Amino acid sequence: MYSAILTPLLLSLLSTPLLAHSSHGQAPLTTAPDEDWATYHLAEEHHISNFDAGAFFTLHDFDFSSSWTPDEIRRMYGLDDESQRGVDEAKKAEVVRRTLEIFDADGDEAVQRGEWMEGWRAGKRLEDFGLGPGHHGDDEYEYEIHHFEKFHDENTKEEDLTHPEDIEHFRKHDEQEAAAEHQEQMDRMPIVEQNIPQKFRRY
Fold first, then answer.
1. Strand, coil or helix: 69
2. Which helix (H) or strand (E) holds 58?
3. What is the mean pLDDT, run by run of 10 residues, along the chain of 203 residues?
4. How deeply is 87 buried, as exposed, middle or buried, from its count of CB atoms within 10 A (0-12, 13-18, 19+)?
């Protein structure tokens, strides 16, 4: 049985209009087959339909440094997401290398905002490496944008969250809550017996 505690963001989704699954009379954002990867990513991962190159760069400038580092490129493409565990590191390295080849004009191993904007105006685009839309949110965000918004709506009640994805989501919540409670109990103990090697215990 999953936890009855809902996050503030999920509670807000339960009480406001959503981009819902077609069964509720609305269709999720879609992109044309020939759209570039950045447009596809925005529609699938962020539910944003009007593309703006400057806004796209800022959205993925995770450390606010006005540049994309190799780590940020990995994160943008979702290469460290659990869905990409089966992708070998050589393929992931190729994604970073090709992105730098396309946009890193000065060869400093980063894509500066100016390089991105100039490249975009010149017709350069992020490549689609066949690895999906690029999941780079936390578990809560990914559940809400890829499942809740598609299959539930403002009329959904807590007892209606019975899809396998809903159950798995709340199972993770239960595990995290149990782990936090266990750690709290351990922190209150003056001596943590489990941390004492067996040979030093008196019994």
1. coil
2. helix 53-59
3. 41 38 40 72 83 93 95 93 88 97 97 97 95 70 56 65 66 70 70 66 63
4. middle
